[in-house]
Amino acid sequence: MLGILQKDCYLCADFRFQVMEWLENLFLGSGIAHSVMIVALTIALGLLLGRVKIGSISLGVTWVLFMGILLSHLGLGIDAQICNFVKEFGLILFVYSIGIQVGPGFVSSLREGGLRLNLLAVTTILLGVVTCYVIHRVTGEELTTMVGVLSGAVTNTPGLGAAQQTVFDVTGEVDNTLASAYAVSYPLGVVGIIVSMLIVRAMFRIRLEREAVKAERSDAPRTLRVDVRVTNPAMFGRRIDEVARITRSKFVVGRIFDHNHQQRMASGETELQENDILRIVVSSADVELVQSLIGEKVKVNDSEWQAASESKQLEKRRIVVTKPKLNGRHIGDLHIRENYNVTITRVVRAGIELVATYELRLQMGDVVVVVGHKHDLDEVANILGNSVKRLDRPNLLQMFIGIFIGVLVGSIPIVFPGIPQPVKLGLAGGPLIVAILLARYGARYKLITFTTNSANMMIREIGISLFLAAVGLGAGEGFVESIAAGGYWWILYGVLITVLPLLVVGFIARKACKFDYFTIMGLMSGAMTDPPALAYANSLSSNDRSAVAYASVYPLTMFLRIFTAQILVLVALS
Questions:
Q1: pLDDT along the chain (574 residues), means of 10
Q2: How many of the other CB atoms lie within 10 Å of CB of 393?
């Protein structure tokens, strides 16, 4: 009996040993399973802490970064190559989803405020470089080390990589101090950007609810609906399409109260008569021109239009474009008005209202506003699809084609005279630019880039979580040692480089340029090429102003961050 008990004890001890060895290999070892578990654990714990609020403030997804640093410091790291892949792929997913979101309205945003935004972003970069150089001169810290601090303070990994490559090309040696300085200053760089946003918010006593309402008003539809009476004799007897050519403007006439006060549908061939009242959908930029040439603005109550519509059995309906074969087709090519006596007045795309001119290209997911008789509208709905279920299927083919092209574009070297290393847009800049262009112009080439808001948000959140987890896991090892060895000064230098330029530019953006707070947050995030800060900004509002501002300044900012890092290294080594 005793022998049996001893044998059972040996078996139990052996089993416990095997279990402990298994757990040790799983959590402290290496391999794919180990890496996936650690990344998942980092993200889960970080997102859990992200729900904690101090007052009304939460760092949200940024906690994933700090959790990665903590776990890495405790020895729960992952293979360096796997870590780099997770980081870069997560960043690609994040910026690509941002580009797809803001692409449809990107060109118009550049026309409206993109130049000023980019000038402010350039100012932020130059102030950061000047602050970095002044600290070098005052403290005597090596300029190459300060370049690492600068890259971490502005959370720009490509700038660090360019600086390291330049040092190696010039000296033939690897400078690990650059990476250490970057790792030490990066975490507080992320926090410093968010703190700068909070300081600007407190400085101008900004209330988010009021700011959101103000932003919605300024985001008022880019199309306006106006009623105009035909009083200009030069327009009498002219067809509507002739008037459009004369004014060289974008407008659609949906319905007409004729001189007998009878409502009827309008088409391009409809001739205008004196005292006709036109219900016009027109671009906000053209509204005054159209009014002045046709006649005078009048006010007809919606109830009068509705009553007249009911008497004529007319309806207004919103129909979703869900047939892939219509992607990229001009509205005029469908001959809907001629064949079905139905007028398309507006197209809503990514929350932006567009005038439904014949030249406008339709895209999957567009919502068209149409007016006509019920049975005609039913036929038009069949032509356009109007099957929301079709939009639930993700367009992964186009997404990965876009990522492929984006990585290709980001890898193209741009050579400047006198600069030993070519400058590249990198794995973030390239996919972002390609995503914007595809979302804006992809329909012309039959590429379907439509993604539902929920799917886009899922891709974005997965991307930023993977990126932050990998950055934290990569920076945690040796983090405390670097600080203890004098790196605490790098933290102070980094905070100055982060906060001072942002506060100056934030003040100018609000006081002089009158930008709304959400745009300022996007500007700050983009000027620092910082996805976590953008994620924080997006969490404060449902509008996309922060994302649009971020995408507007990101490409130029990324280029200048890389360029200035290389210039500073060359100055240091000259």
A1: 55 61 63 86 89 64 80 83 86 82 64 79 95 93 90 80 71 70 80 92 88 67 78 85 75 77 76 84 78 84 66 77 82 83 81 77 84 86 81 77 90 72 71 84 73 79 85 73 74 93 95 90 90 82 80 78 82 79
A2: 9
Task: Give me the amino acid identity at 228.
Answer: V
Cα within 13 Å of Cα(203), Cβ side: 15
What distance in Å separates the CA atoms of residue 265 and residue 372, rounded to the nearest whole number?
8
Q: How far apart are CA 30 and CA 17, in angstroms?
A: 19
The one-letter amino acid at 238: R
The CB density around residue 221, as the number of other CB atoms within 10 Å, is: 15
How far does Cα 128 stand from its chain's mean position? Answer: 24
Q: What is the DSSP string of 299-314?
A: ---HHHHHHHHHHTTE
Side chain identity at residue 109, one-letter code: S
* Token duo for residue 258: 């004729």
Q: What is the identity of the amino acid at 274?
A: E
For 58, phi then psi, to 5°, come to -140, 140
> SS3 helix, strand, coil % of the chain, rounded to 5?
65, 10, 20
Supply the pTM of this predicted model.
0.67
- Whole-angstrom Cα distance, residue 495 to residue 187? 10
* Domain extent listing, the chain: 2-30, 36-217+393-573
Closest CA to 551 of 34, 232, 104, 244: 104
Tokens 């070892």 — which residue? 29
Contact call for residues 435 and 406 (beta carbons, < 8 A): yes
Contacts of 527 (CB under 8 A, 6+ apart): 120, 121, 124, 125, 502, 505, 553, 557
Q: Are 427 and 410 in contact (CB under 8 A)?
A: yes
According to DSSP H, which parts of 204-221 are helical? 208-218
d(CA 84, CA 41): 18
CA distance to 42, 60, 78, 474, per residue, from 49 (Å): 11, 8, 22, 20
Topology (CATH) of 36-217+393-573: Na+/H+ antiporter like fold (1.20.1530)
Instruction: Check if the beta carbon of residue 90 is closer than 8 Å to that of residue 96.
Output: no
Distance CA 255, CA 287 (A): 17
Using the structure block, give the residue that is written with the tokens 């005292």.
Answer: 275
Say which residues have a Cβ less than 8 Å from residue 147's Cβ, sequence separation at least 6.
132, 163, 178, 565, 568, 569, 572
